[in-house]
């Protein structure tokens, strides 16, 4: 289960994510669709811990990926 909670991210003055939240259950297919510049790559980068959000949280199987990156990757 992936739980994205109120993620915000700006690049300087450019507000890329204004607070995105969604949940994906195990076995579920989920499409992240949007026009150019909507924030898809930023969202995926944060979910895979390549980028840090300015605020908000991402949980994977109940682990906060920033507080417990090793627990997350082990599970
Ligand atoms: N490294 C960066 N520096 C500054 N602004 C950025 C950076 N990366 C993305 N942005 C800006 O953040 C916003 C979201 O961009 P992002 O690349 O996440 O969107 P996207 O949905 O993946 O777009 P595309 O469909 O073109 O791939 C856009 O306004 C973009 O210009
Ligand atoms: Mg992109």
What attributes does this structure have?
2 helices, 75 residues, four-stranded antiparallel β-sheet, binds magnesium ion, binds adenosine-5'-triphosphate, Rossmann fold, alpha+beta
The total domain count is 1
Structural class: alpha+beta
**CATH architecture annotation:** 3-Layer(aba) Sandwich
Number of strands: 4
Spatial ordering of strands, largest sheet: 2-1-3-4
CATH T-level topology: Rossmann fold
CATH class: Alpha Beta
Task: Work out the strand percent.
Answer: 35-45%
Topology order in helix (H) and strand (E) letters = EEHEEH
> Oligomer, anyone?
single chain
* Gyration radius, rounded: 12 Å
What proportion of the residues is helical, as a percent range? 10-25%
The tally of helices reads: 2
Shape descriptor reads globular
Largest sheet: 4 strands, antiparallel
Description of the molecule:
The chain has 75 residues and is α+β, with helices and mostly antiparallel strands. The chain has one domain: 3-Layer(aba) Sandwich (Rossmann fold), CATH 3.40.50.300. Helix content is 19%, strand content 39%. The chain has two helices and four strands, in the order E-E-H-E-E-H. The protein has helices at residues 40-47, 69-74; strands at residues 2-11, 14-24, 55-60, 63-64. It has a four-stranded antiparallel sheet. Strand 1 (2-11) and strand 2 (14-24) form a beta hairpin. The longest helix has 8 residues, at 40-47. It starts with a strand and ends with a helix. The structure holds adenosine-5'-triphosphate and magnesium ion. Residues 11, 14, 16, 34, 36-42 line the site of adenosine-5'-triphosphate (ATP).
């Amino acid at each position: 289960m992936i739980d994205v909670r109120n993620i915000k991210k700006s690049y300087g003055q450019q507000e890329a994510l204004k607070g995105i939240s969604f949940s994906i259950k195990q076995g579920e297919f989920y499409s992240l669709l949007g026009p150019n510049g909507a924030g898809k790559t930023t969202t995926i980068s944060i979910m895979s811990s390549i980028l840090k959000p300015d605020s908000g949280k991402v949980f994977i199987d109940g682990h906060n990926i920033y507080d417990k990156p090793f627990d997350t990757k082990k599970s």
